[in-house]
Specification:
The chain is built from ten helices and eight strands. With about 270 residues, it is of the alpha/beta class. The protein folds into two domains: about 100 residues, Nitrogenase molybdenum iron protein domain (Rossmann fold, 3-Layer(aba) Sandwich); about 120 residues, Nitrogenase molybdenum iron protein domain (Rossmann fold), CATH 3.40.50.1980. Strands 2-1-3-4 form a four-stranded parallel β-sheet, covered by helices on one side. The chain has a four-stranded parallel β-sheet with strand order 6-5-7-8. Strand 5, helix 7 and strand 6 form a beta-alpha-beta unit. The protein is globular, with a radius of gyration of 19 Å. It starts with 9 loop residues before the first strand and ends in an 8-residue tail after the last helix.
Length: about 270
């Protein structure tokens, strides 16, 4: 376990958690991040990179001697975590699957890093802001819409209904398709979409995410061909898929998308 008199040396292998560390005032304690940990850029400029979320450079991480490594069930490989346990005193495992789960995430980080000045207070502020945005979603009656949220092409890939993204979209009653759950981890969480699947004709909205595939307006025609009866648009994948401090802004963004689409009705 971590010596209470020793300064934290934090390695984050998850972009959302890296951003959360900075939001909690723990940026100066970061000693490693992945190449995908890019926000906030200025705070991370001098933090060493140790590969990606799926291909961590374990030897480099060992050299940096972290006291704590932050990982996520969905984003990091179990075999990587098993190797890290051999030399890292504290592995902090996270797995938020809904916007509400961020409240538990903030509490978890407060428990782990709470002796650092200001962490409890900042975590409380993030929790309060998130509760306000969740309440704002609840105040509106959102009609159900069938949505295809695309994260990849060649092949087309979407999100299962028990993923964080799908649970975010559910806050405005956007129901993701295909109608399946993916389980706690693994490829089933991001199903391949067969181009001639019968349910595609019933999709009302196609959302092309800006990550991990970098969809842009040049892909809209292909998306419309996939779902001929749907409205297709590009969306900010970071705001809809990054948890932690970005969730509240993501919910505001999502409400704006639904309202501009005319999906909002009178307050419930």
């Amino acid at each position: 376990m971590h010596n209470s008199n020793e300064a934290f040396r934090i390695a984050s292998l998850v972009p959302s958690l890296t951003e959360l560390m900075v939001s909690l005032g723990l940026g100066p304690r970061l000693v490693a991040r992945t190449g995908f940990c890019i926000h906030p850029a200025q705070a991370l400029a001098n933090v060493p990179k140790v590969g990606g979320t799926k291909d961590v450079k374990v030897d480099r991480l060992r050299e940096l001697a972290p006291t704590h490594v932050l990982v996520n069930v969905d984003e990091n490989r179990l075999e990587t975590v098993q190797v890290l346990r051999e030399f890292v005193p504290n592995i902090v495992v996270t797995h938020p699957c809904s916007p509400e789960d961020n409240l538990g995430l903030f509490s978890q980080m407060s428990e782990v890093f709470g002796r650092e000045p200001g962490v409890f207070e900042r975590a409380g502020q993030l929790a309060d802001e998130l509760r306000e945005e969740l309440a704002a979603c609840e105040r509106t009656a959102w009609p159900t819409a069938k949505v295809l949220y695309l994260i990849w092409r060649d092949p087309w890939m979407a999100v299962a209904r028990d993923t964080y993204i799908a649970q975010m979209l559910a806050k405005v009653n956007w129901q993701t398709w295909p109608a399946q759950r993916g389980g706690e981890s693994g490829a089933a969480r991001y199903p391949v979409v067969e181009p001639h699947a019968h349910w595609l004709a019933g999709v009302e909205r196609v959302l092309l995410s800006s990550e991990p595939y970098r969809f842009d307006e040049s892909h809209l025609d292909a998306a419309r061909a996939l779902c001929p009866n749907a409205h297709a648009q590009c969306v900010d994948g970071e705001l809809l898929s990054w948890y932690g401090p970005r969730c509240a802004a993501g919910l505001r963004y999502l409400r704006g998308l639904a309202q501009s689409a005319g999906d909002a009705s009178t307050p419930a």
